[in-house]
């Protein structure tokens, strides 16, 4: 019995002696100045501009870093946008996001979907909102779906309502009716109109 107790004591002693505390090598993990000043979980934030409802943000986690004037959003981001009359205009879903508190610009990242109430839907992996110009843009691959089109491209820029947009290197399908004119009938009409 004494032998078992001595053996058990030796095993526990050697196990404890072999355990060392591992410190994080990352200065950000130990440096409290890099920690957020505010951290919210499962929150909804309502934004007003000139006493008018502007947007409603929901995120699983929101972290605010005051020194850098940055807010990081993650764990699922949902944002509803409203026009100057307070009517809902569009909705955005993203895996994560980042806002610049000084400029009031935002970047949505991950799986990003923006859908306007008029039926346009944009899908991409990064979407930027420029608060000064009130325009959205993406410099990566995009898919734009409208009631009549499904277009793909590399770059995209639009107004905040996804009404007036531009897409670079577009390809896809359209179900719009286009008027077809032959080049020779147009040329004949032009030459005949002056006589």
Give your account of this protein's structure.
The protein has 195 residues and is α+β, with helices and mostly antiparallel strands. The protein has a single domain (36-177), classed as Lipopolysaccharide (LPS) transport protein A like domain (lipopolysaccharide transport protein A fold), CATH 2.60.450.10. 16% of the residues lie in helices and 50% in strands. It is built from three helices and 13 strands, in the order ααβββββββββββββα. It has helices at 2-18, 27-30, 183-193; strands at 38-49, 52-65, 70-82, 88-94, 96-100, 105-116, 121-130, 135-138, 142-145, 149-153, 156-159, 165-167, 171-174. Strands 1, 2, 3, 4, 5, 6, 7, 8, 9, 10, 11, 12 and 13 form a 13-stranded antiparallel sheet that branches. A hairpin with a 4-residue loop joins strand 7 (121-130) and strand 8 (135-138). The radius of gyration is 28 Å and the shape is globular.
